[in-house]
Amino acid sequence: MAEESVRTQPAATGSLTRAKRMALRVTVLYVVLVGAWVLLQSGIPIALFIDFPLEPLTWKQLFVGWFFIISTGWLLYLLMSRGLDLITAGQEALKLRDRAIESSTNAIIISEYRQPELPIIYVNPAFERITGYSSAEALGRDPGFLQATDVEQPELDAVRLALKEQRQCHVVLRGYRKNGTLYWNDLHIAPVRDEDGRVTHYVAVLNDITETRKYQEELARRANFDTLTELPNRNLLSDRASTAIVRARRHGHGMALVFIDIDNFRVINDSLGHAVGDNMLRLVGERLRSCLREVDTVARIGGDEFVLVLGDRDDEKIIATQIQRIMAVFVKPFLVGEREFFVTASVGIASYPGDGDKVETLLQNAEIAMYRAKDIGRNTFQFYTAEMNSSVNERLVLESWLRRALERGELVLHYQPQVDLRSNRVFGAEALIRWQHPNMGLVSPAKFIPLAEQTGLIVAIGEWAMRTACAQNKAWQDAGLPPITVAVNISARQFREKNLADSVAEILAKTGLDPRYLEMEVTESVIMHDAEEVITLLQRLKSMGVTLSVDDFGTGYSSLSYLKRFPIDRLKIDQSFIHDIASDSDGAAIVRAVINLGHDLNLRVIAEGVETKEQLEFLRILQCDERQGYLFSRPLPAEEFEKLLREGRTLDA
Fold it and tell me: What CATH number is attached to the domain comprising 556?
């Protein structure tokens, strides 16, 4: 555009110069011709020819006439020059306007208002770029052809009214290109009036805002929908739940909010990676959506938490039936890549109006009910009750106290002796965490350990327990007591920590304990999760010299092909099988099988929870290697356990 301006400017200047030269010639010709005529009219040439005497006044009149003619000729030239300047300036302005219109990125359309259907008489090049129609295809047509068959747009009524009232208008319309694709256009139309104020034409400026519209729609979608699952998010959930409450209030029926949390989802995320976890969440979202009515809503509000809005629901039995159908979606395995995963969910339900009349209240109560479902074993659902609030408040207080228990030194370790079944010699101890609260007294591990797992505090607590147990064991050895192995439980959350092996190495180095006197107990369900990675970690721990045992054996789903590859030293039979071993033939069969399996794999087998002589005698018959339980000793404070070691006592029944 700049180059063209440079080219046209000298051309325009040359034309103006030529025109002014022509004006000068016309002026000179005018002066010469009129001057000659005045000379002839004065009679001077004839008088000079016949030698007729002339009056001085005659010569004066001639010169005055010539002066007048020259003056008027000069004025004529100035007028013509000025006129040429104005004409040239006008032409240049028109060229600039034309160029601006032609170069505009917006489509410009001019229509003839005085003819029916406002035929198009001009379109600029941007019109062809935006719509795909050439100038020849557009001229003479009604501009409405750009809307194709989409003529029911409310904004078109505003355009028609503006045309009728002969005024400006601004709307956003859907348009369709020549190839049929939709585009959004920001349309401005304005009338053009003649000298008498009558509208002769309409000018329309069309701005293609398709990309802007897509961006705005994406922002709106992100504001209301979860980007991972494409389900409504917390924002849209609140709106839909509010609508459901208003509808329920108006029609006199109920509705329910259902809070769903996937059990142990953190295990999948931490051990297999977030990509697998994300795919799992998408599949869960799809299954939940498939079992709801169109009037209901399923939303993901974060992490592994989903919320359902069930409208028109009054009867708890009907809601319970629907919840059972919803929980059934977790029965079938989820296929992620080439792997199958079984997951369960804990569900809490709060109903309007009984459990609250606001979305926030119902959501909070449904979450409380969900946590209650987790507390009683997970993979179940619970309806909210007012009594749950006090339980939640207690849980929050307990969590707050637990967070400060470590720094305040309220956690202690008790040591339960582990006894060789043949010699009755104490060969080791299991370190068990106890919480001595200044107000509540001794808090049951069953009460605070699950809370520590849920909040993630178990990682710090587990590291403290290992450090304390190792330091205590080294102190006993330094005091000249017989060396024993101290077993420390490793929680599922702690086992998934990437730096577990480094942490163990650091603790052993700082406490100075020989690694063979540290035993790490890991539950069967933990080691069977992503077995290949577990094998790598166990081998690294084993290479340090640490003893490894599988806790709660028999309660999980161990694969024997993996079990023989695990570098473990001991199997620990879960106490649930020991409890009725003398009277329950099935339990006895399982214990017998575990003992035989352990011996076949050259592993030591220890039975925990031995409380009766009958149990002990049965274990002797089955040739179990080791025992642990209240029949021999309760878990002892460090001072009492040290006394037991110092006395060198054997523990028999």
Answer: 3.20.20.450
Residue 565: closest CA among 525, 604, 529, 538 = 538
Cα(122)–Cα(125) distance, integer angstroms: 10
On whether residue 441 sits in a domain, the answer given is no
CA dist 95 and 89 (Å) reads: 10
Domain total in the chain: 4
Q: Check: CB of residue 546 under 8 Å from CB of residue 567.
A: no
- For residues 272-293, average pLDDT: 89
Contact 207, 106 (CB under 8 A): yes
Residue 316: what residue type?
E
Instruction: Report, as an integer, the average pLDDT of 523-546.
Output: 82
Instruction: Find the radius of gyration of the CA atoms of the chain.
Output: 48
CA-based nearest residue to 605, from 577, 629, 625: 625
pLDDT in tens, 321-371: 888 888 888 888 888 877 888 889 999 999 998 889 999 999 999 998 998
Pick the closest to residue 447 from 427, 433, 459, 460 (CA basis). Answer: 433
pLDDT confidence of residue 67: 87
Residue 620 shares a structural domain with residue 473: yes
In terms of domains, do 250 and 205 share one? no
Q: How confident is the model at residue 17 (pLDDT cuts 50, 70, 90)?
A: confident
Domain identity same for 593 and 495: yes
Cβ contacts of residue 630 below 8 Å, gap of 6+?
Answer: 610, 611
Listed residues 351, 366, 385: the one ending a domain? 385
One domain, residues 255 and 204: no
Helix or strand (DSSP H, E) at 336: strand 334-336
Write the DSSP symbol of residue 181.
-
Q: Clarify whether residues 251 and 297 are in a common domain.
A: yes
- Asked, for residue 645, whether it belongs to a domain, the answer is no
Please say if the pLDDT value at position 414 is more than 90.
Answer: yes
> Is the predicted pLDDT of residue 46 greater than 50, yes or no?
yes
**Least-confidence region, from 48-57, 164-173, 235-244:** 48-57
Distance CA 380, CA 368 (A): 14
β-strands 485-490, 518-523 pairing = parallel
CATH number of the domain enclosing 336:
3.30.70.270
Question: So what's the pLDDT on residue 433?
Answer: 93
Instruction: Say if residue 353 is preceded by a cis peptide, omega within 30 of 0.
Output: yes
Q: Tell me, yes or no, whether 199 and 124 share the same domain.
A: yes
Percentage of the chain with pLDDT > 90? 40
pLDDT band at 545 (very low <50, low <70, confident <90, very high): very high
Q: Copy the structure tokens of residue 429.
A: 């101890």
Residues 209 and 238 in one domain: no
How sure is the predictor about 5, in pLDDT bands with cuts at 50, 70 and 90? very low
Paired with 651 in beta bridges are none
Parallel, antiparallel, or unpaired: how do β-strands 297-302 and 305-310 relate? antiparallel
Q: Which residue from 487, 467, 480, 483 is spatially nearest to 415, judged by alpha carbons?
A: 487
In a domain, 430, yes or no: no
What is the token pair recorded at 50? 């016949």
Sheet of strand 381-383: strand arrangement = 297-302, 305-310, 255-262, 345-352, 381-383
| pTM, 2 dp | 0.51
Query: What backbone phi and psi angles, to 5 degrees, belong to 51?
Result: 60, 45
Give the rounded distance of the alpha carbon of 215 from its chain centre. Answer: 16
442 is a domain residue: no
10: pLDDT confidence band, cut at 50, 70 and 90?
Answer: low
Domain region containing 461: 456-481+488-639
For residues 61 and 111, state if they share a domain.
Answer: no
